[in-house]
Structure formats: structure tokens, C-alpha cells
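Protocol step 6 of 9: fold each sequence in the batch and record its C-alpha cells directly after the sequence line. For illustration, a two-sequence batch is reproduced in full.

Sequence one:
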Amino acid sequence: MDFGLKGKHAVVTGGTRGIGRAITLALIEQGVSVTACHRQESDEAATLRAEFAARDAAARLVPADVADEGDVRRLLDVAHEAFGPVDVLVNNAGVISHLPLAEMPTAEWRRVVETNLGGTYQMIRGSLDRLARPSSIVNITSAVAKHGMPNAAHYVASKAGIIGLTRALCKELGAEGIRVNALTCGIVDNTGQKSPQGEAGKRRYAQMTALGRLGEPAEIAAAVLFLASDAAAYVTGAVLDVDGGI
């Protein structure tokens, strides 16, 4: 399906693995120039660069920590110099850990919240002078922001905060032609990544969905393409559930 995005420029955070990688590659397939970022070198980063080369894609992969204001500014400077104003910003970078609140050090709370919610804030704030007008911001959050999850209060709080940030900024930035939307993702089967719950956990989560299966990264990417495109020109402040009816 052609979403009419050819010639646009997108920045995708956390773009080397799972959902972020699928979004990055889906945008490239639509003819979008993409600047993706990752926090550290990895096999996934190396193979993504190889995919860029194999496709002769107008794409760059930049190391950056989205929680670091200086890294964010450098990332956006590199993106703008390479491909011009940013038409689509996808805030996907995130971290998680599993700890009961009574055992959660303050440092771990801060690490997760400052990466997930703080990183989204840093990227949007830092991009205001780099965004095209009009443009689209898509924030990736999680179904647990609505439903909750034990032993991950920091993660749930950060993902719920992204929904609040989305709804606030859609009103603040709408007059400039900047749309701000969020996707709440369900359990996604990131092929090649080990699930902390194991295969039994995957089966249990699949049974919790109306569709009886886990999601695929490409299905999240397809929703991002819709929100990035003119098909969603009158959509802002929306929180789109892509969770299989969990």
C-alpha cells in the first residue's frame, strides 16, 4: 500500500530492533529518507546498516541516548544536515525492567522514566526548530499504560505519561500544523528476541487477546505509516490501540 510518503524525511528513535526496526524499514520501503538512532553498538545495528546499503536507502543510523539533551541535539543536527526538515518523528526508544516497587532503587526508577517519558520529551522539544510544517509526531507507548502491570510501576508510569504528553502537545502544537498521536502496543512477537516469560508466556499472552495471537512488528509499523500520512491529516491527539484486543 502506498501511503504517499515518498520524499519525506523521518527520524525514528530506537530503530535497530523489534518495532523500531520494522518502522524504519517500512518507512524506507515507502521512499522516506530515514535517520534512525540507537544507544549502543550491537549486531542489530550492524545488520541494519547492511540492509540500508543493500537497499541503497537514503538512511543513516546515529548513536544517541534520547535521555541526553546533548545527544538529542546532535542527532537532530545530523538528520537535518543529511535530509532537511523532519516530516515524521517516531518516538520509539524505550527500556524496561521488572522489579516490585519495594525493591526498586531510585536510580532504576529514574533510568526508565527518563528514557521512556523523558526521552520523548527531549526529542519533541529538541525537534521543534527542525520539524517541517505540517508534520507528524507518533509516540509509541504500551497497552499497559491503560491496563497496568505488576512489578513494573516505573515502566507503566512512563508509558502512561506519554499518553498525557501526546494529548497536551496536540493542543499546543496543532496551530503550527504539527499532529501528535500515540500508539498503544500490545504484546508483540519480536522474532529473534528472547521473551522473559518464555514460550509458555507467549502462549498465555496470545490467549488474552481477542484475535488469539501476538502482534507482529510490521503491524505496528503499518499503523505508524497511517498516522504519518495524509490519510490521517485530521487525526491528532489520538491514542490508537494496536493490541489485538488484549
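Sequence two, same batch, same settings:
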Amino acid sequence: MKAGFSETRIEPEVGLEMAGYIDRVEKSSGIHGPLEMKTLFMGDRDPFWLVAVDLLGIPASFRPSGTVAVATHTHAAPEPGLMTGQLNSTFDISRDRARKAASPLSSIEYIAFEVEGVCSRRTGGERSSVLGGEILVLECETGRTGIVIFPCHPTVLGPENTLYSPDLAGGIRQALTWKFGFPFMYLNSCAGDVSTRYTRAGRSPDEIERLSCLFVSSMVETGRKRIIPSGTSYSEYSFEMPVKSPDEKPPFPTRPEALPGYKLALKRLESKGLEKYRSARLGMLELGEIAMLFLPFELFLDTGEILKRIAKKRFEIPLIVCYALGYLPYVVPAGMEGSYEWYASPYEERAESHLVSEVESFLLGRRLKDGQELY
């Protein structure tokens, strides 16, 4: 089995509509930091590419064969739908570079860690800024490559920003490269209720650097294991989610921080676009004892822990990656009425339990795919 890595810049035109903040009215005016596509090739006879892109989400129209695409969820990039053509052309280059760089993969080092003060939960009463993440280090004949999986809305730069930037995701990537001495790709996890709202001291590029440095300086290892992968196995499953009624107008929010979510809900109703959120797709990459579960949603931290417990029944090391295989909004747990996330979600209250049930069915092999049992 071989693995190879490449890094390719994405260079969108200035003047495009930006994604991530409904209150941002101005179009992009320049570049603070380059947007990038990180591509990991894995396999041999059956090639597989894992792609991480500095966008809010992955447009549904970007669907190269044998590929899982994941967004870092930066709020300082163009609307994803405007980027399909450039994503395809950039991937053609990045894919070939990664495959040409491939060499035999000897092992994967799994590292669990915690960091403090970088971001925290923004809902409920708990404000702890100690959060966990995972790192995979791929040991190849020609060098090492890192994957960091961490849950956080990388939103240091605010709605007033009109410069392209990978934001905190790019800063963490760079800081880890400095610390370990080899390149990293950043995969976001269940960050639906996690952000820098209560940990950032400002909304400037200097604050990105401060939090990124804090990420590596506060990192405490909590577990480690070496895996010898024998190959890759990838499978997908499509299902439907329960969406809210298109005739139900939400009540005006009582919390000021929920107002942007209320505006999103009204915009969604005006466009009559609820149905586009119904179809969903999940994927799973198996690497021996490691299972990477890819979901398009913005999930809450607790939802991710539920999914990990389910996956633990089959795999020693389950990893949850969000903003993958497309982009779908928040799936909120019950009891979140009136919050920003509740307004911004197009899904019914039972959506979380429905999603958990679908994932459990997929992971435990009770679903059929192409007429064959998955396991």
C-alpha cells in the first residue's frame, strides 16, 4: 500500500460573494492568506484520494471519482457553488501530484490530544475550553504526512472581513507543520456548538496567529497507538433526513445572538429550498483498526460522541469528520429551541435521533448496498 501528499493553491478571483455570514454584504476585496487544496493519495490498484479544501463547504457538483472531499469550514472564502470549475481544475493537478509523490506506507501513528484556550462550546452552561482532537501520522518511505482532526468553527475573522483566508484552520495547519516538521491537512469534526466566540481576544490576523501558537503550545497527548494498515476500504450510504415544514414561520428570537439564524431561516423559506436538505450521504474509510466516518452536516460535540460510541463496537479508533461529501447545515439535539443553531437548522427536532439511527444501521451492517451485505 502506498500514500502520497500534495498541496495546491486555489486562486479565486477577487470580487466574488463570500460565504459564512449572512450579515456580510460586501464582496471579497483581496487575499490575506492563500486558500489551499490538500490531497492525500492512498491505495495501490484501487486508488483513493482524501481532499481537504479551504471553503465553507463542498459544493455538491464537485464529485471526482474515488474521492472524499472535506471542507475546513473557513468563513473567509467564496460561496462554494462559485468554485466548482476551479475545484475540478485544481484537483486534476493536485491528484496527479499526490499520486506521483506516493511511496510505500509502513505505518500510521494515531495520537489523541487535548488543547486548552483555543475554542470552547458556545451553547448551554458549559464553557470549558479544553477540547480533544486526533492526529494521524502517515509514515512513508519518502517522508511523513499529518492529518489533524479537530472540532472548531475557525471563525476568528468576522463578517466585516472581506479578505480570503483559511482562518484558524490554516493557522493550526501551519503551526503543526512547524512543530512536527512535516505537512498537515486539517479535517474539521463536530463543531456545531464549538467556536472561538469566548476564547478570541479580537478578530484580526494577529489573533489567528496567537490561537494557532496556543494550539501547539497547550497540546497534551492523551493516547497513542501505531497501526499497520493492510489496505483501504471505502463505502458509502445515502439516506433522507426529516426537514421542517415549509409553511411554518419561526418565531422572532428573544436572544440577540440568534438573529442571524432567524434571518437564515426566513431566507430559506422565501427561496422554498427546504427539499435540497433532505438527501444526505455518508462515507466510511477503513484503515485496519481505524474508521473515518465522513458526514456533510454541522454536528454538535455530543452527537459526535454518540456516533463514536456506536463505531467503537466495530473499530478500535473511530474518527468523525464533518463538512464532507457536500455541505448540509446544523443537526441540533432536542431542547435547543430559540438558539442560533436551532433557527439555522432546516431539520426537525427528531433529526439527531434519526441520523444516529441511520449511522448505526450503516455501521452495524443492517443496510444493504448494491444488493450485498456491507459486513
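Proceed to step 7 once all outputs are recorded. Observation for sequence two: Residues 1-368 form one domain.
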